[in-house]
């Protein structure tokens, strides 16, 4: 018999920003931090998250809130999935230890709150140019860009769907 009140265990990974202090106490270090929209999760995202997780004991993912996604200029109809739905899909990933959100245009404030040992970004970022790199290095952390899995992009996927 299935218990109707039991929810999937991975939902416990989703934490509001105000609950981060308590949630972080439960996570083994070193902490790897990444952030992004992660609107329509695809193979490239999953491979990236798995690779990021191997770099530390816990992987923390901060999602852009819906309002901050709209400010990124990805299109009037983006994100396709709201922040609560994106958090659930992200939390279901085996590689992910904790999921939260940030409202600001950049993740600097939440990185300063969390103080991870490693910041990872996907793609061809010049990590030296990101203000987040100087921030994380200020307490001895490192910043690293992981290469994208070629051929996978949410924007291109959305374009293909629209084209039929």
- Sketch the topology as an H/E string, one letter per element: HEHEHHEHEHEH
In the CATH hierarchy, the third-tier topology is known as Rossmann fold
Helical content band:
25-40%
**DSSP helix count?**
7
Q: For the CA atoms, what is the radius of gyration?
A: 16 Å
Largest sheet: 5 strands, parallel
- Look at the structure and name the CATH superfamily: HUPs
CATH class: Alpha Beta
The poorly predicted ranges are none
The tally of beta strands, per DSSP, is 5
Overall tally of domains: 1
Structural class: alpha/beta
Q: Which word captures the global form? A: globular
Q: Tags for this entry?
A:
five-stranded parallel beta sheet, 17% strand, 164 residues, single chain, globular, alpha/beta
Describe the protein.
The longest helix is centred in the N-terminal third of the chain and has 11 residues. The chain has 164 residues and is of the alpha/beta class. The radius of gyration is 16 Å and the shape is globular. The chain starts with 19 loop residues before the first helix and ends with a helix. Helices cover 34% and strands 17% of the residues.
């Amino acid at each position: 018999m299935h218990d109707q009140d039991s929810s999937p265990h991975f939902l416990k990974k989703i934490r509001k920003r105000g609950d981060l202090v308590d949630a972080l106490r439960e996570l083994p270090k070193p902490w790897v931090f990444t952030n992004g929209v992660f609107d329509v999760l695809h193979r490239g995202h999953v491979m990236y998250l798995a690779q990021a997780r191997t770099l530390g004991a816990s992987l923390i993912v901060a999602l852009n809130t819906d309002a901050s996604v709209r400010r990124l200029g990805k299109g009037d109809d983006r994100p396709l999935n709201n922040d609560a739905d994106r958090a659930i899909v992200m939390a279901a990933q085996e590689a992910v230890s904790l999921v939260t959100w940030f409202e600001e245009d950049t993740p600097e404030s939440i990185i300063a709150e969390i103080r991870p040992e490693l910041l990872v970004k996907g793609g061809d970022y010049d990590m030296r140019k990101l203000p987040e790199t100087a921030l994380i290095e200020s307490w001895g952390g490192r910043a690293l860009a992981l290469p994208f899995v070629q051929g996978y992009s949410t924007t291109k996927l959305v374009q293909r769907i629209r084209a039929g």
